[in-house]
Amino acid sequence: MTSAPSASSPVLLDRAGRLARITLNRPHRRNSFDLAMLARFEDVLHEVGRDSEVEVVVLTGAGPAFCAGTDLDELAGLDAAATMQVQRRTAELVERWYRLEQTTVTSFNGPAIGSGAVLGLAADLRVAADSCFFTFPEVTFGIPLTWSGMAILADLVGADRAKRWLLLGERIGPAEMLRHDLVTAAVAADGLGAACDAVVERLLTVSPVGRSMTKRAARLAGPRFEAAANDSYLGALSVALRPAGPYPKGGQR
């Protein structure tokens, strides 16, 4: 079953029995989040979260990129109050995705930039096409990584390595993703669907209760989202203090 609205929606939701697939669907903007996309993703998470039939949720992107994070053209035009609200909602979005009762899988179909990488990395399991890379250019824009990004990265690779990646804007390719267990597999793009399907099939062969309880137990040692409670203030303040004008396009193009 496919939920409304139509295929022109910025986020698509397809459900088939125990599996749901979420597709970020702004390929002309490398699936970066504007306000309409943010609102739709919030609705999709609510819809999936209350569906007792769905056990596994796969997240991917349409087109050649997974997600370029926040739509910087829109962000540059927001006032301080709107910026604060967006920063709060995006941090909450990542936490809701991380805490979703179902088992979550990200299929990185291409580059994942900044907060787009954070969203994908907040899933329980992750696979990637060999065209995928992660980079976090926010510091070069004069703003910090928000979306609960430091909490997620510090949990996965440690605070010191996460800080280095952010400060130096390093590019993390498939080999380094595998070395740091950011993904379970990095495969050719034409094999990504099969690799993701294999993970899903394996998950669906085991007890949903066992998976759910394992996920709940892992939360106790997972990201400290309370440490990201100031993300909205830090992000809004940084946006206010940076020089006026458009953001550099290097992170999204």
What tags apply to this protein structure?
253 residues, alpha/beta, 6-stranded mixed β-sheet, 9 strands, 15% strand, globular
- Mind describing the biggest β-sheet? 6 strands, mixed
Gyration radius (Cα, Å) is: 17 Å
* Strand neighbour order, sheet with most strands: 1-2-3-4-6-9
Order of helices and strands: EEHEHHEEHEEHHEHEHHH
Protein structure class:
alpha/beta
The count of β-strands is 9
Residue share in helix: 40-55%
N-C termini distance: 34 Å
Low-confidence stretches: 1-5
Percentage of residues in DSSP E strands: 15-25%
| Mean of all residue-level pLDDT scores | 91
Describe it for me?
The protein has 253 residues and is α/β, with parallel strands linked by helices. Helices cover 43% and strands 15% of the residues. It is built from 10 helices and 9 strands. The strands form 2 sheets. The protein has a 6-stranded mixed sheet, sandwiched between helices. A 3-stranded mixed sheet has the order 5-7-8. α1 links the parallel β2 and β3. α1 packs parallel to α3 and α5 packs across α6. The longest helix has 20 residues. The N terminus is likely disordered.
Briefly say what this structure is:
The protein has 253 residues and is of the alpha/beta class.
